[in-house]
């Protein structure tokens, strides 16, 4: 991806704030956090949804692109927890 495309995407994202929407979202959330993420600081997510299930994966920001298999592997257990929340 060219630097121009990355810069355009960064500018587009910088103008978006969905904090209120995320705080009012009533569905369970799982946050796949990249251990070496230099874009999203470690504690930021707690300000948005402290009840989110956080799973830390090795890798940089955009961990889904860097480690898709590892990212997908953590989803079934979260789905099982959501499907049977009292177990």
Task: Report on this structure.
The protein is an alpha+beta fold and 87 residues long. It has one domain. It is 48% helix and 17% strand. A two-stranded parallel sheet has the order 1-2. The protein is globular. The mean pLDDT is 88.
Brief sketch in words of this structure:
The chain is built from six helices and two strands. The protein is α+β, with helices and mostly antiparallel strands.
Q: Specify the number of helices.
A: 6
Estimate what percentage of residues fall within beta strands: 15-25%
User: Using only CA atoms, what is the Rg?
Assistant: 15 Å
Uncertain stretches: none
Number of strands: 2
Structural class: alpha+beta
**Approximate shape:** globular
Share of helical residues: 40-55%
Distance between the termini: 44 Å
- Kindly give the count of domains: 1
Oligomer classification = single chain
Which sheet architecture does the biggest sheet show?
A: 2 strands, parallel
Q: What is the topology, as strand order, of the major beta sheet?
A: 1-2
Mean pLDDT across the residues is 88
Q: What is the chain-wise order of helices and strands?
A: HHEHEHHH
